[in-house]
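Hi everyone,

Forwarding the result from last night's run.
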Amino acid sequence: QHYFIQSNLSSYMELLDNTKEDEGSSSPPLAVSVEDVLDRIQDRFSLRGLGVMVLIMTVHLSSVFSIQYPIYGGFIPYTEWRCLEGSGRCSARVRTFTWDNPGDTPYNRKVLCGQEGEKGLVFGEDFLWEVAKNRTSYAVDWGLYCENEYKATLLSSLYFVGAVIGLLTGNFFYDTFGRRRVCVCGYLFEFTFMMATGAAPNLHTLMVLRVFGGLGTYLGLSGMYVYILECTAERWRAFISSLLAVMWGIGILAFSPTLAYFITSWRILSVVGGAGMFLTISTWLVVPPSPRFLMENCGDERGARRSLRRFIHLFGAGDRVDLSTMELKSTKREEDEMSYLQSLRDFLTYNEMLIQLLIQLFQWMIVAFLYFGFTFGWSKLGSNIYVSYVLAGIAEIVAALACWFGQSVLGRKLTMIICFFVAGSSFLLALIPLSFATDILTMEQLMCLVGSMFVAGAWGTLYLYVTEQSPTPHRGKMAAICSLAARLGSFAGPQASLLFNVNKSGALIMFAVLAFAAGIVSLRLPETKGRQSPASAEEVQLRRMVQREGGGSFFKRHFT
């Protein structure tokens, strides 16, 4: 009996020990960050997930429409007019120009507006507009041509005043109310003012509407960028960034030959474009709030889990990602919580970060100036405004794809340098007086097209570079400051298009010099391809010291 009890007790104790071992061996939930989960969701290419991203990127088309609306709504038909019978001044100018320039049409800007010291022809007294398809334009309706053309370009520039306000207030709104919510509200704001544009009674009203429109668009545009890049795994960010640029080019292509060509009234054009904007905004109903915002900014783990489950469903990753076995952790560190005063102190303490920021500010200002100088200047470079912008849209798409290849193979820095130097060289080649068999595309327009394509490529690379090179606690602030510098260039860009009327060769030489200057200062920046982003301003300084003390030639120590 004693033996029986002892043997059973031993068996029971052995079973209890095994049970405890099994219980101890069960692993606790895996602690992961939101970014870790997104990496697992997007660890392979998903056509379904790509479709979701492309769907919400269609709102990018609204940005193109909003920014480029004055190109068509305020188009000045300098070649579509005729002299009134009985106007001796108009007839005399036409005869003189025809005598001096045989083979060229006398119905152009020079004859209409007059040479130096001459007054422009007066509508109703000297000439009448003969615009094809009875196309209307607020520039024609309100007399914004010849000596008043600067008012039309000012209207385009005021849009970027609103953009600056949107960027200044954006960080607060994004971090307080969320990326998706502010993006949708920003585009709804722009939709409202775009619809109101169709009823604008005068120039001053339209100026106010454009300022508020720029505010709404850039709140939405920046919110879209932040949301998409936050919800994209690191391995796909360069691709998604290039895809956003492709969508921009598609927007240019879709806007030029469709809405702007077939809708002849500038008032109806704004209303129809606004309606299309509303449709693209509705695509954001399919995606959840940013899980990173919910986790890091709000501390809402439950909300972050709901958002991640939605992404798992949208990307079809339910078979490989099980959130029930994971515990979400925050990656926010105390050093990331830094006031603006502390950030300023870092720039003064670690001069290398300040130098890099100043270089990037210069580059962003120049690239925006060049980009929007051509965006609002193609009508002065090409004989057909619609063909010009279709070609510009194709160039944007080619630039986006080429830069994706360059960034992945050559690196960010070398791609940036190549883009700036090729752009500058193209602007100089545009000075060669060479014509092709067709009047649709000249050597000047072709080289400007190539130059603007590489300017667009440089800008896309700058977007990626500033996020990779900026230290983690300063990344948002440095990106915002660079965007503000770009808005200054954007404001001046439409005004630069007036230089094509004054001295086209001088304008191209100036553009080339600026492009070369932006490329030269790129030599001072470090390469970011294949390197982790610096965690602090001190690390930026240490990397530069290691680079300079690494030996080698002066060029290697200072420009690589």
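The two ends are 87 Å apart (CA to CA).

Cheers,
N.
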